[in-house]
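Let us begin with a simple case.
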Amino acid sequence: MADKRSRVNWRGYLPAIVTPFSDDGALDPQRLGAYLEWLLAEGMHGLVIGGTTGEWTSLSPAERRDLFSLVGAQMKGRLPIIAGCTSFTPQDSIDLARHARDCGFDGILLTPPPYVRPSEEELFRFYKTVSDANVLPICVYNWPPGTGIDMPPELLARIAGLDGVVALKQSTGRLDLFVKTFFMLRETVRIFGFAMDEHGLTLLNGAGGDGTMGAGGVLGRDQPDFYNHLWAGNLDAARACGAKDRMILDQWYTPDLVGRFGSGPAVLKAAFAALGMPVGGVRAPLIDVDAHGRAQVEATLRQAGKL
């Protein structure tokens, strides 16, 4: 249990990436490979694969494994890679984690089981079962918009005490709960979820903290450079990078991180298309962003100096 934080080197900006599909909707290894190389060249500090942004909900079990196999073969050892292993049962998450381990992944990201809204005791036992399997280090993901549950800091502290849990992605919509969780658990696990705004910068600079997971890396180097500049002590440069990240969050998403003119994956895929990075469309039941939404996406990218 001692110093679990040191078991992993995760820090900085780790985008939750989209899953590239071909024009007929199949998993596209060529597009995926080009996208991964671009993310690496843009200086990402790690990658989260097959999460909400990666449309795990429309991937078959075989496709989730294929995705991990493709990413592991290309990126193992080049930067930290974390596998989205959210499932309805702990055994399904364990099975996915074992495949991710065999593909060279460094850890897993795990929300509560969606839809069923487990009780606090059920949630603790879910995470304990996965932790006890001792497959890969776990980043717990508190994701109220996707699960309907905003795990309270006291429950998160109990889960963080599990030996296999080394990190927390805290995506509560309440700043007070984020701050409380951070100060409760920063000595126990790595904490992700910091906004790239003045609140986040103040916390990171004054009290520590580990990083941010999200937004698909659509702004390229500006997103990891928020942290690079922060670590170098150049707060003004960090603010400039963070302002661009906040721009896309404010213009593309509601405060609850729901897309304003399409789902999160659809908005990001429209942005990558505008940037000339073909990643295909989204799968049903999601639908691609319409012409009005694409115009909004392009306007934001121009404002951010990306077009």
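The second case is a distinct protein. As before, the sequence precedes its structure tokens.
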Amino acid sequence: MELAVLKHNGEETGRKVSLSDDIFGIEPNDHAIYLDVKQFLANQRQGTHKSKERNEIAGSTKKIKKQKGTGGARAGSIKSPVFRGGGRVFGPRPRNYSFKLNKKLKQVARKSALSYKVKENSLMVLENVSFDAPKTKDYLAFLNGLSLVDKKTLLVLPEDNKNVFLSSRNLPKAKVVSVNDVNTYELLNADNLMLCEGSVSILENLLSK
């Protein structure tokens, strides 16, 4: 499969890049995508939720009334969960939500996401992008040239570029990542995927190992 390499104004450069069918043309595996997205979202959770249990409440442990003969239910200390201000029963505790996935399965998920983008005609290959200084208006002009200002976009760079990253950071629908940080969730979340020309071969090498 071949795609034309586009300039930053959307015009063709006259060059074409070949996309591997083993990466961009597979039959998508929806379950692999589900697991990879589930892991990505689980890893975003802080897991710092915590409520105080009975032994952590500050208060007296003295029995507040005699056991029987009061006409009411028997009761222990003021820290009992049945009283206001008492400890919570089975409350949340800090925990780690992350879980392991096999490398091969994650590769299948990314290949599936890329194949979906090709099927939806929402993948384009661009000349390598770089800015002299971090300016949001420069990135807006870049998106405007491609008619993508109002769409969710993901730009994949061959390597980290601080100026491009900072230029896009204030735009809520624009996302920039290096090719080493590509993940299934962000691939599928974008309406349009933009691969820099230099990113294609690196991405194919990463997903074919």
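The chain has a mean pLDDT of 92. The longest strand covers residues 12-18.
Keep these points in mind for the review questions at the end of the chapter.
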